Amino acid sequence: MRQKLFALPLSLRLTIWLIVGFWLIIAIFPLLWLVVMSFKLPIDAFDANPFKVILGPITSQTVGGFSLITLVLVLMTLYGLLQLFARREFYFARFQVGLGLQIIFYLGLLALAMLSFPLANFISQSLSNLLGDNNFLTKPIFGLTGQHYHAVWFENGFYKQFLNTMMVTLGVVSISLTIGTLAAYALARSNSSWAFWILLVALVFRAMPHSTLVTGYLPPFIEWGLYGKRIAVIIVLVAINQPFTIWMLRSFFMNIPASLDEAALVDGCNRLQAFRQVIMPIMWPGVITTGLFSFMLAYNDYLVSALLLDGESRTMVPAIMSYFNRETTLTDQLEAIAAAASITFPIFLLVLFFQKQIVSGLTQGAVKG
Length: 369
Description:
mainly alpha
């Protein structure tokens, strides 16, 4: 019966795959195209012929690139690392790996993935000396250069904006989750009519335009000397994010039976001990899911950071936009593209490492019929 229920006609399956494929092209293609352009010289990156943008013939002749053997070695290494990552839960359970070793495992995979490119290129160059420069295995077929990334991160000091972003983001996530978990737990367990009105006010506050909130905070920030400092952005983003955090965490707490609290209270725990020792271990998937959304809000923020920060305290997104808001050369535009492509990497890693907790958290917070 189950097989008949999910046995879709061929025409419907083809339609679904076409729609999904079309959506993937629209969603992923712009980012992939930016990444490809960021590794090319301007003459290749802005060429009207898309094949020249991909292959980068001028870049290959000028600075070199990936040969066939380099590409094969990199793909084999990344495939092996992905297989190891996919089986990580099996190895963690078999060898009883703790949290500290798990973090070392993840960092080791990341280091190997980053080292696979220079190591494969070194092997290709070594073989080129033995086989000759014109051998099809070692001759560059994809022109690649990392000079734009080097210029952005080191010559232009983009690492300072990255550190500022990390400070703001971690501050927003830690404060939002600390207040949000306590508030959401209290509202989920409360039978008072005030809980409904508090949630309603939080929802209205969340719907307000961000520019309105920033304008309201400006006078005290200027008076207290907080304008232009990272703490000002953290305060405003926490205020913006807190209603969403409370609503989302409350939905998770509502799905946890209140009988667990009562059992902990009967065993001698007070309310705070029951929350910390009984409820929170069950809530971790929901907390991680909510924390990731809070991270993305602060990490991708432009308006609040652009209005409140400048100079040395600026975060990454406003810094990238400053590249496009001035008269620039093609090289400057490629540096901006390289910066924009590189800031997506931390988000990709977070989703990759916490995918299991995110799926579990979203399922746990689903509304049950």
